[in-house]
Design goal:
Helix content is about 45%, strand content about 15%. It is α/β, with parallel strands linked by helices and about 375 residues long.
Length: about 375
């Protein structure tokens, strides 16, 4: 096509909706250097902080999520929708995109709707097994919907073109030598290792359950890399000092590639991004779905992975079973190997490039018809 490819990514509110868009954007720029990529989202959420630091242009729209209880913010929602639609039309006129890509969350809704109604090529990527309300409402309007779980297709009524692409992960994600990765954290290179994390803020229920089993982990010569989150690190960092050389406690782990590579088993929430990374790296897991996720979508994500044989699932209310489940898995080499193979079969390391190629194809089709 003539000239630079222009693409707008709309989405955010959470990292799970933002980072897949960034991964697709990175792939797009590798495939088509010089592409003009920008992002649209909410001014006061993660996208407003992260996107400009990565060097992408960012446009904000005045929008917020639908709350289940009445509040002043809920009362403002109709006004916000009207204002955000006007803002979206202005962005489309100014940016003149060939394609608009929505990656979910309320921040993607206004721009996707305006783009579809305005005749722009549009694509949605849905990360979760149970599609979010934005995806469900707009699936019939856009040109393509790319899904992560095959079971999502039956929930998208009226969608024209549904493609199973998987969930994109950052292009830098890769496996390192396990022994080298463990040494990086100050651990023994040949000893079996557990990785626990609950997101940047942590997960208090998981942390409490893990605390109870740390002495047994050390006694049975296992190692632990534990991201507690910022809220809980002061409570648990003394265990890192007590079991120095066996237990690593951090509020946040920047070098997640190395943490994953060091791990034989992972305990974590069931957010779509974490599941995609576990699949690409072929890591077995015990998944503890976040209990307050909309429509219980984390449990549905986890159940799909468990059905494939790649994970065990425990709800917060079942964490008293974590110790038994964890040691049963760590002690069974054959079961771990089988779960690892099942996890790898779910991974789609080329997802970002597959979706980026779909964006390029949509843009070229539009230009041919122009």
């Amino acid at each position: 096509m003539s000239g630079a490819l222009r693409v707008i990514f709309a989405g955010g509110g959470t990292g799970g909706h933002l980072f897949p868009g960034i991964a697709i954007a990175e792939a797009l720029q590798q495939l088509r250097p010089g592409s003009e990529v920008s992002f649209v989202g909410s001014r006061n959420r993660i996208e407003a902080r992260v996107v400009p630091k990565l060097g992408y242009d960012f446009d904000a729209v005045w929008i917020s999520g639908l709350r289940r209880s009445f509040s002043f913010a809920t009362a403002l929602l109709p006004l916000k929708l009207m204002v955000s639609l006007v803002q979206s039309w202005n962005i489309l006129r100014r940016r003149k995109p060939h394609v608009v890509v929505g990656t979910g969350g309320y921040a993607s809704g206004p721009l996707l709707y305006a783009a579809a109604r305005g005749g722009h090529r549009t694509l949605i990527h849905e990360q979760n097994e149970y599609p979010g309300i934005t995806t469900r409402k707009l699936a019939s309007l856009v040109d393509e919907v790319h899904i992560t779980f095959p079971t999502s297709e039956s929930l998208l009524r009226g969608a024209k073109n549904i493609v199973l692409s998987g969930n994109p992960v950052r292009l830098s994600l890769r496996r390192h030598d396990p022994g080298d990765a463990r040494v990086h954290f100050g651990l023994r290179p040949a000893r079996r290792t557990l990785l626990v994390f609950g997101g940047s803020l942590g997960a208090a229920a998981i942390n409490r359950a893990v605390r109870q089993i740390v002495p047994r982990l050390v006694r049975e010569e296992y190692q632990l890399i534990w991201q507690t989150g910022t809220r809980d690190v002061d409570e648990y960092k003394s265990l890192g000092a007590l079991y120095q050389g066996n237990v690593i406690v951090r509020s946040f782990i920047d070098e997640m590639d190395l943490a994953y590579s060091a791990a034989d088993l992972v305990v974590c929430r069931a957010g779509a991004t974490s599941l995609a990374e576990l699949g690409v790296l072929g890591l077995p897991a015990i998944l503890v779905p976040y209990p307050h996720a909309a429509a219980d979508h984390q449990y549905r994500n986890a159940a799909a992975v468990a059905e494939a044989g790649a994970a065990a699932v425990l709800r917060d209310s079942e964490l008293d079973r974590l110790e038994g489940t964890l040691f049963h898995m760590l002690d069974d080499d054959k079961a771990l190997a089988g779960m690892s193979a099942a996890a790898e079969s779910l991974g789609r390391p080329r997802a970002a490039f597959d979706i980026a190629n779909a964006v390029i194809r949509l843009a070229e089709e539009k230009e041919r018809k122009a």
